Amino acid sequence: MEKLYLICFFIFGAVFSSFLCVVGFRLPQKINFVKGTSRCDTCYHKLHFFEKIPILSYIFQGGKCKWCKNQIPIIIPVCEILGATLFSLAFYRFGFSYNLLIALLISTLFIVVLVTDVKYFIIPDSILIIYGILLIVVQYFNVGPKELLYHIATGIGLFILMYLIMILAEKAFKKESLGGADVKLLFLFGLVLDPMLGIISIFIASVIALPVSLLVLVKNKSHMIPFGPFLILAVIIILYSGITIDKILNILT
Ligand SMILES: [Zn+2]
Prior knowledge:
By secondary structure, the chain is mostly helical. It is built from nine helices and no strands. Zinc ion (ZN) binds near residues 40, 42, 43, 45 and 70.
């Protein structure tokens, strides 16, 4: 029975991520993402059912739109595979629970931010507000009102810490190196993590982002990499691995 659920979560993750890609592509451009989701974004040709199947349609069409032969952005199948994997892993890890809901919320946030931050270097405020509200509601039922207040306070603390890091980085590098959205993201992290794990998430994100930014620097001669996806990926690693401060201290000593 569990295998069947895992397959269901994989398919659901792929389909939902496919929709989130459309949101990620269209929201920053203020294009309606509910209407006309089943059209090619280049030639506007209406897509058939089989052209909308996540992952598979990309493979069978060789990564091109059947009608205008334009390349379908590679980020779409990548997000679909990531979403499918994260959804099934979340179910495998948490079963039916509030923690599953939190894992799914953080995973879907990762997919949307991956698209908006890589493509436009922004994370729309509307996305952050919606996820903030959803996480607060889920945590209210998950940990109760008292613990929720603690998490909101943690979020504010992490927000201030990240803001200070941003100011320091600006002074050190004499240019903007972190976005305001990265600072706001830290508030969301406080809603699901303890303070120390929130701080560790910044550290993990920096460690993963460093080789990627060097690669981008060598390949594209660009200093700009979106940091948001790395931050959220760090939270996913922390949540899915179930690591705690005690375990980290145990490893270190
Ligand atoms: Zn097309």
